[in-house]
Design brief:
The protein is of the alpha/beta class.
């Protein structure tokens, strides 16, 4: 599996109206690269993003100057996700392969079966409170293993907050990298997932070998 190719049209995102397509050409690609370079140099880029192919469908990867802030499934509507990021993080959003390359590369390696842990820097500004305590614990669940919602609740410091763990997992802004798919029900059934039950089952099967 390889990352999706650089789009042939401009992908400067307008959080109100979507994308402004421009005829694809080498000059357009060069102009976009210069625009991203200038925005990064001048501190004018709030979010860089790209999409990549995966066995569970196209994934949106979004990165801030701090780190990976969002991984989104196709079912979430990538344009809608970018609009939310524009409101929550900042409106200056540009397509950038360079800024997102590390996260995309590690996701590719994960799906190829050559990576079991991620070492990308995370920007968890989209989660706070108990949800953040849950998200912080999830990387401790080892590749190929699972924990119940009850076990995660106890590990996050609130043993009775089983439903809240489900909500936290459902709002995990960086799924796969932070493995909420490894949290299952006490009876062994997989439970809900932001990317859909089929995607969760696929990830668990991938890790089961």
């Amino acid at each position: 599996m390889t990352s999706a190719a650089t789009p042939s049209e401009s992908e400067i995102f307008d959080p109100v109206g979507g994308q402004f397509p421009t005829p694809g050409a080498a000059e357009t690609e060069a102009l976009r690269a210069r625009l991203v370079d200038a925005a990064e140099r001048e501190g004018l880029l709030d979010v860089a993003y790209r999409t990549l192919d995966s066995p569970i469908g196209p994934l949106l990867v979004a990165v801030t100057a701090i780190g990976l802030v969002r991984v989104a499934f196709e079912i979430e509507d990538h344009d809608a996700v970018l609009r939310k990021l524009a409101g929550a993080v900042g409106p200056r959003i540009l397509w950038s392969a360079r800024r997102t390359d590390d996260a995309a590369r590690q996701l590719d390696q994960y799906f190829a079966g050559t990576r079991r842990t991620f070492d990308v820097v995370l920007d968890l500004q989209l989660v706070t409170g108990f949800r953040r305590a849950v998200i912080t614990h999830l990387p401790d669940i080892a590749y190929g293993t699972t924990e119940s919602y009850a076990i995660v609740a106890a590990a996050a410091g609130s043993p009775n907050a089983v439903r809240a763990v489900g909500t936290a997992c459902g709002h995990n802004p960086v799924p796969i990298v932070v493995p909420c798919h490894r949290v299952v029900r006490s009876d062994g059934s997989i439970g809900q997932y932001r990317g859909g039950a089929e995607a969760k089952a696929t990830l668990l099967a991938l890790e089961a070998g």
